[in-house]
């Protein structure tokens, strides 16, 4: 899974502002955790920017080429096609994707084709899993993360230059172009030695002060101590299921992993390693053709992913470039879409040392796995911000706290967390709502039928939760 431990100074100060108000927060395994929640709401999602879109992968020179691709609009770039990724230990009980039904909102041609591929009869899971207790009385916290907190004497924003490497005590040094283009040094020592103190030393040549920075961070996080009102814009009309999975049965879902060249699909090369491939029913092995995942617990550290059932065609602009020889399938695109999940994450220490007992569920721009998910950064658009959204991620081995975060041109998240479903299952919906540029990750109890009613979706949108407003 892609992940960056790099934050801009503004992000850190904004988080600190939140932590100073949240005495229930704890520091564990190098990460802060605040309140358990049953909803995380991202607001102000979408920006205008560009990323480096891979255009070729040369097996002779082991080099990749790319060109700039601009994006803008509601929820961009997360409105582009997304693939859905899972890391064990995890048992996936249900998965589905919904789009607005005809007459409710506009439906793209891709969505129409996906809807047409739904089977008339879909098998339901026969295994009755214990349910994760759904909570509605959990305290929630609003967290707003912004990327710019410095201002000069004229009140103009100043953006720090360089990366802040976050370690156990968050001792950092940043070069910032603050005055007349001259680089000065800002040192923050023991930033989070407590929740209420920030020791800051600023070069006297700068026009920014610790007080101004902290004040700006607090102002931009004005909602950080209150609960979200659940006032997201309502949607009109029902939502039709376009993809669905239960163990052993799929409709418009294609399971893949990273076993290219081992079992009849995908490729391997000394330059780029194993490509993606069809996954066998165990989720771990490769396969020559698409198979449904079985009723299995994928072990610790192992990964699989889900694309739609629609293959990418030649010169398919919505897919973009794909590595030669791979099974290339469309992801799930559009401004308005809902992903639903039911899964358990039992403890398992038998996997790889790097990701042992650290399950996760996340979304990637589907171009990333179709080129190179892990490896040379120039062979993927990830580093340049084409889009990742961590939905449920364990950050340290054995933790029971699932964190969410967005990684793209807008970077942000929250220290609130979902309870990991170690024994039972967690049912959740992820709602992309272009009406107000929000993404809601909500723990739910309702069934996932062929159709989600307007009332059901709006009830999910109304659930108060921890909110991360992207810059």
Automatic annotation (TrEMBL):
Enzyme class, first EC level, given as a word: hydrolase
Name this protein carries in UniProt: glucan endo-1,3-beta-D-glucosidase
Gene Ontology CC, one term: fungal-type cell wall
Family: Belongs to the PGA52 family.
Sorted UniProt keywords: Cell wall biogenesis/degradation, Glycosidase, Hydrolase, Signal
Domain of life the protein comes from: Eukaryota
EC number: 3.2.1.39
GO molecular function, one term: glucan endo-1,3-beta-D-glucosidase activity
PANTHER family: PROTEIN TOS1
Signal peptide: 1-22
Cell wall protein YJL171C/Tos1 N-terminal domain mapped to chain residues: 38-99
Cell wall protein YJL171C/Tos1 C-terminal domain segment(s): 237-460
Any one biological process term the GO annotation gives: cell wall organization
Catalytic activity: Hydrolysis of (1->3)-beta-D-glucosidic linkages in (1->3)-beta-D-glucans
């Amino acid at each position: 899974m892609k992940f960056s431990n790099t934050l801009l100074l503004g992000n850190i100060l904004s988080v600190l502002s939140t932590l100073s108000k949240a005495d229930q927060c704890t520091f564990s395994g190098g990460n802060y955790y605040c309140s358990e929640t049953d909803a995380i709401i991202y607001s102000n999602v979408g920006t205008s920017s560009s990323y480096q879109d891979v255009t070729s992968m040369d097996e002779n020179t082991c080099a990749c080429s790319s060109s700039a691709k601009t994006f803008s609009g509601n929820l961009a770039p997360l409105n582009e096609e997304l693939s859905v990724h899972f890391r064990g230990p995890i048992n996936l009980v249900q998965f589905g994707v919904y789009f607005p039904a005809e007459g409710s909102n506009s439906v793209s041609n891709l969505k129409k084709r996906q809807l047409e591929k739904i089977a008339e009869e879909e098998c339901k899971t026969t295994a009755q899993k214990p349910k994760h207790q759904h909570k509605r009385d959990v305290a929630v916290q609003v967290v707003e993360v912004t990327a710019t907190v410095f201002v000069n004497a004229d009140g103009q924003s100043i953006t720090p230059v360089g990366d802040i490497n976050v370690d156990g005590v968050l001792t950092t040094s940043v070069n910032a172009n603050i005055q007349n283009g001259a680089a000065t040094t800002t040192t923050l020592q023991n930033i989070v030695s407590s929740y209420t103190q920030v020791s800051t030393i600023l070069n006297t040549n700068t026009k920014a002060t610790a007080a101004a920075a902290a004040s700006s961070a607090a102002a931009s996080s004005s909602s950080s101590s209150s609960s979200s009102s659940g006032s997201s814009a309502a949607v009109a009309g029902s939502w039709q299921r376009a993809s669905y999975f239960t163990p052993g049965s799929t409709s418009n879902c294609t399971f893949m992993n990273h076993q290219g060249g081992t079992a009849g699909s995908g490729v391997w090369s000394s330059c780029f390693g194993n490509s993606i491939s069809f996954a066998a029913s165990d989720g771990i092995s490769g396969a020559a053709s698409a198979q449904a995942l079985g009723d299995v617990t994928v072990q610790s550290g192992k990964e699989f992913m889900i694309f739609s059932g629609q293959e990418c065609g030649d010169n398919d602009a919505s897919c973009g470039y794909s590595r030669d020889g791979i099974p290339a399938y469309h992801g799930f695109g559009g401004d308005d879409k809902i992903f639903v999940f039911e899964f358990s994450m039992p403890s398992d220490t038998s996997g790889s040392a790097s990701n042992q007992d650290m399950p996760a569920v996340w979304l990637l721009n589907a171009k990333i796995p179709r080129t190179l998910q892990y490896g040379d950064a120039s062979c993927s658009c990830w580093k340049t911000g084409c889009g990742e959204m961590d939905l449920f991620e364990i950050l340290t081995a054995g933790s029971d706290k699932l964190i969410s975060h967005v990684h793209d041109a807008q970077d942000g998240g929250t220290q609130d967390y979902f309870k990991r479903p170690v024994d039972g299952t967690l049912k959740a919906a992820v709602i992309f709502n272009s009406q107000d540029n929000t993404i809601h990750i909500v723990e739910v109890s309702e069934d996932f039928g062929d159709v989600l009613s307007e009332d059901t979706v709006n009830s999910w949108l109304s659930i108060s939760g921890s909110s991360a407003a992207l810059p």
